[in-house]
Amino acid sequence: MMAASCQYSAGERRDPGFFRRMWAMVVKEFVQMRRDRMTFATMIIVPIMQLVLFGYAINTDPKQLPTAVLTRDDGPLTRAVLAAMKNTDYFDFRVQVRDPEELDRLVRSGEVQFAVEIPASFERDVRRGDRPSLLVIADATDPVATGTAVSALQGLIDTALRRELRGPDDTIAKTEAPFAITLQNRYNPEGITQYNIVPGLLGVVLTMTMMMFTALAVTREIERGTMESLLAMPIKPVEIMIGKIAPFVLVGFVQMTIILGAAHILFDVPIMGSVWLLVVLATLFAAANLAVGYTFSTLAENQLQAVQMTFFFFLPNILLSGFMFPFRGMPEWAQVIGELLPLTHFLRIVRGITLKGIGFADMQVDVLALVLFMLLAMGLALVRFRRTLD
Amino acid sequence: MKEIAIDVNGLTKSFDGRTVVRDLSLEVPKGEIYGFLGPNGSGKTTTLRMLCGLLTPDSGEGTCLGYDIRIEADAIKRNVGYMTQRFSLYADLSIRENLEFVARVYGMPDPKGAASRAIARLGLTGRQDQLAGELSGGWKQRLALGACILPEPRLLLLDEPTAGVDPKARREFWDEIHGLAAEGITVLVSTHYMDEAERCHELAYIAFGELLAQGTAKEVVAQSGLSTWIVSGGDLHRLGAALQVRDGIDMVAPFGAELHVSGRDEAALDAAIKAAKNADGAHRWTRGAPSLEDVFILLMDEAKDNFA
User: Fold this and answer.
1) Which long-range contacts (C-beta less than 8 Å, at least 24 apart) are formed by B300-304?
2) A198 and A334: one domain?
3) A151 and A122, same structural domain?
């Protein structure tokens, strides 16, 4: 039997030719593709995800931007001005405040994009021809987010006053401009795009690299067969997890230093707030991403799947966090998803500290979100970690 | 009374509805080398994994070094060295780094010193900085064993430790194992090699998840009730085919220039041989003793009839 099957000699076999050999490869690849469900899913889901995100969620002309208003004059003219601003569809007056400090705080903490202050006796000064000015404060951290809204302010005076100043004061309406709008572009007055992008890049780089490092951590041990003897040793899942995450926190620290240094030296990005606070929170952010990656690695069956999972996670992080496109330009559902991503919160923190110089008090929510995210991911990883080979 | 290192009863494990180990009971005395034999896929690895806490049995219970295999896996892990079938040290770490890692995980007081001693014992002093992945098969096995015994376990579970290793390395490996057993370490070792089986103090033969025979090599052969004739001469292949179909002959196996002809029923075998001898005068027929391999192949064939 044995002998019979070995009797072929090379000369008896015909050369099957290029196409047959190639076809053999094609058939094998298709069979393997069908077996690998995750790759199959990637093929279908990624285009759909991209289509939905780019098509529906992204809008570089954000409207309905949250605006705070402080009115010290409650006359019909004031109301007309505010109504005109509202009619541009760019300003959404969400908060009424009573003192300028509160106005500053709202802009600084990022709760509003714009703040409008109508000075006392605004209407009287207009009618007297004193040309008072009303103040519009813009959070210009992201120049794209405020750009179009600011340009919409230009034609505003005309539309607002045409109606109100008709009649006896017709003459005033016809003069050059009865009042001025003073625009204060805060935090990035020159509208330098790099100031917004470069600090954000810190978040993006940390997300991508940290997640990738740990995503491979567990699957690599399984694929190489080292997991079997690791599990037979007296070491606990939580010890394995922390032991695998900790070295990469240091890597994140090095990356952080490089990006922040380059931001400062090459792009002149200011660091208005505390560098140390930034470092501590960036470390927290790195740890949160490491935990996510580690969770993926306990869910994935092999290294390829782990990489695919990080890609799935990375895509919405880039598109929906406000890194590439203004967060407030996205529809409600996309903002909800965005709020669930750690990068969204870190971007607020890193831009807040570098450009606005905000302290811990103004970003508690974002810090809390990062902590919760990290603990959740770690908890899931520990639950998912297989202590046995069952 | 002998001290018992492994004492398990009725272990059963199935994966996706396929029973891999069925109602397996095992008693391994302390300080013995216990051979675990059986064909591929017979449940040897699954059993070893259940013993060291890597798998949870579906049913059955027992102790390993006096610790309950179901609830005291942590204590078992601290005292058991498990050598996996596939090389499972870190290929991208050096010999020394691998050993130090193991020493640290087991909480040994002086990991560097422990690694140095292990390296010296393995005779790898000059190569301690070589990556483990670059070692030849035989050295990989020795290193894996070295890593296993580094934390001074009381029980070694070795899963086909010598598969693919050359005869000299295998012999050295077994000398080492006998040395360890002499120190009081219990060794449960699975293997396919019959010469290794004969080096064990006691054997268990498992096929299709069931324990088929247990005892010393001699006992296992005796229990089988097998009788064997040895035939030598020309064209054994054709003779073997002819003998195979005769009643009373259960098994014909070529061994080099000889043919082992065996049967469970001695009288029936002798009758069949007599008839065959009369028909064919060209061969030399002598009465021989069945080998362990004959016994195991017979056991496997019987098991196949029962379960497959």
Assistant:
1) B300/B39, B300/B207, B301/B250, B301/B251, B302/B212, B303/B207, B303/B208, B303/B210, B303/B212, B304/B207, B304/B208
2) yes
3) yes
pLDDT at residue B110 in the model: 94
Taking CA atoms, what residue in A is nearest to B86? Answer: A225
A234 and A277 together in one domain: yes
CA of B213: how far to CAs of B127, B207, B300, in Å?
43, 10, 11
Question: How many angstroms separate the CA atoms of B102 and A98, rounded?
Answer: 66
Q: Which positions in chain A touch B105 (Cβ < 8 Å)?
A: 233-235
Expressed as residue numbers, the domain containing A265 is: 193-384
> In A, which residues are within 8 Å of B88 by CB distance?
224-230
- Residue of chain A minimizing CA distance to B237: A1
B80·A232 Cβ contact <8 A: yes
Whole-number average pLDDT of chain A:
86
Q: Largest alpha-carbon pair distance within chain B?
A: 74
Which amino acid, residue A371?
Answer: V
- Summarised one tens digit per residue, pLDDT across range A329-387 is 888 899 999 999 999 999 999 999 998 888 888 889 999 999 999 999 999 998 888 77
| B50 against A176, higher pLDDT | B50
Query: Of A186, A217, A232, which residue is a domain's last?
Result: A186
**A226 to chain B: closest CA residue:** B88
Is A43 domain-assigned? Answer: no
Residue with tokens 């919760």: A372
- The domain B227-289 having CATH identifier 1.10.357.10: the answer here is no
CA distance B47 to B21: 7
Which among B53, B82, B106 has CB closest to A229?
A: B82
Range picked from A95-99, A246-250, B239-243 for highest mean pLDDT: A246-250
Interface residues from chain B to A (CB-CB < 8 Å): 49, 52-56, 74, 77-78, 80, 82-84, 86-91, 102, 105-107
The model's confidence at residue A279, banded by pLDDT at 50, 70 and 90, is very high
∠A303-A224-A222 over CA atoms, to 5°?
60
Residue A33 located in a structural domain: no
User: What percent of chain B is predicted at pLDDT more than 70?
Assistant: 98
Query: Residue A120 to residues A176, A181, B108, B262: CA-CA distances in angstroms?
Result: 22, 15, 78, 115
The answer on A197 and A313 residing in a single domain is: yes
Render pLDDT for A138-148 as a digit per residue (tens, 0 to 9): 888 888 888 88
Verdict on whether the full-model pTM lies above 0.90: no
pLDDT at B278 over 50: yes
Number of folded domains that form chain A: 2
Q: For residue B82, give the nearest of A224, A225, A232 by CB distance.
A: A232
Residue in B closest to A222 by C-alpha? B88
Pick from B86, B88, B105: CB nearest A234: B105
Are A217 and A361 contained in the same domain? yes
A231/B80 Cβ within 8 A? no
**B103 vs B267, higher pLDDT:** B103
Is there a single domain that holds both residue A114 and residue A224?
no
Q: Is the pLDDT of residue A171 over 60?
A: no
Q: Answer with the residue of higher pLDDT: A305 or A388.
A: A305
SS3 B118: helix
Q: What fold does the segment set B4-92+131-216 form as a domain?
A: Rossmann fold (3.40.50)
Residue A170 belongs to a domain with what CATH number?
A: 3.40.1710.10
| Tokens found for residue A311 | 């890609």
Picking from A170, A186, A202, the residue at the C-terminal end of a domain is A186
Boundaries of every domain in chain B: 4-92+131-216, 227-289
Domain check: are A223 and A319 in the same one?
Answer: yes
A182 shares its domain with A212? no
- Residue A278 lies inside a defined structural domain of this protein: yes
User: What is the spatial distance between Cα B269 and Cα B247, in angstroms, rounded to a whole number?
Assistant: 8
Instruction: Calculate how close chain A gets to B183, using CA atoms only, in Å.
Output: 22
The region of weakest confidence among A127-131, A274-278, A298-302 is A127-131
The ipTM estimated for the assembled molecules is 0.84
